[in-house]
Design goal:
Oligomer: single chain
Largest sheet: none
Strand content: under 5%
Radius of gyration: 35 Å
Number of helices: 6
Length: 146
Amino acid sequence: MEQDRLTRTLKMNRKQFRRRTGIYPETFAEMEAVLNECEGRKKKSGRPAALSVAEQLLTLEFWREYRTFAHLGDDWGVHETTVHPPVERVEAALISSAQFQMPKKRVFQEAQLVYSIVAVDASEVPCERPKKSNAAGTAARKSGIP
């Protein structure tokens, strides 16, 4: 299933490939060259990886769609614990190369708009009401009214 997905993706035209993976085929080829160079430098010991070149596509799907490792594992026919190491390996290899580093900080342009500040005093002021007095109230008691 892995090879089928890989061959289908690589056969797509430029626009479809960009829509599927988030990058252009040229960038994919550059990434592949960096990963192959990184693989050539490391010692070949231990068990071979379950995912080969397809791990790059798997990582692109992870970055593009932010899917869980369980869902990616289901789609690629491997267990979710098999998905995590290749993603980290591809990230580390691409970060270590100078070609794919993200810009660290952006320098923001100074604001060209001039803001004017208006201060409004909204403190509480007691309402002006007439004072209550005994004369203004009812003079008679309720029991005295017929």
